[in-house]
Design brief:
about 200 residues, Pnp Oxidase, Chain A, 4 helices
Amino acid sequence: MQLDFDSLSSNQRYHLLTQTVIPRPIAWVLSENEDASMNLAPFSFFNAICSDPALLALSIGRKDGGELKDTARNILSGREFVVHIANSTQASNLTTTSSSLDYGESELALTQLELTPFEGCSLPRLSDCDIAFQCTLYEHHLIGPNQQAIIYAQVKQLFASDKITHVDGKRVSINANDIDPLSRLGAAEYAGITESFSIKRPK
């Protein structure tokens, strides 16, 4: 089967992309609402894109009514935000935090998730996540007819729990098996990872 994207609707393209660009990492983003309550939401149009400066990229759509999603609204206001990497045991809580709530309602109230201070950051982090990035807005673009927000997030600080880090001289190594990262597939499907493997790189 060969599909011409020019003949497809935006919704059809979305479903095909999310079922074929797999697996995708998930950014579990904590941001602060205007009333100081916490917003938490997952996004799987996400990846690392640059190391100097250290940048992550997020693609955030809009609500059904066309207004900005709460995460984008909070990030574009210029405040700090925290990007977490979930593990496979957190799929249920992560899915719960994708609920569409009124602005100011915290997704955290729907879960048993706990926060802990993030040293040097104005926001806390999720206590059960082994990876958290303290981020600020570097740049953004609004693209397409629906004005989808492309967010470039500059990483200011990385929290990596002691149980996943290994120090070898001056280099810090992080083992994917220890993280047990959750990834997104199509529709409501997720995946963990099987045992990772390494191959010798060409010289």
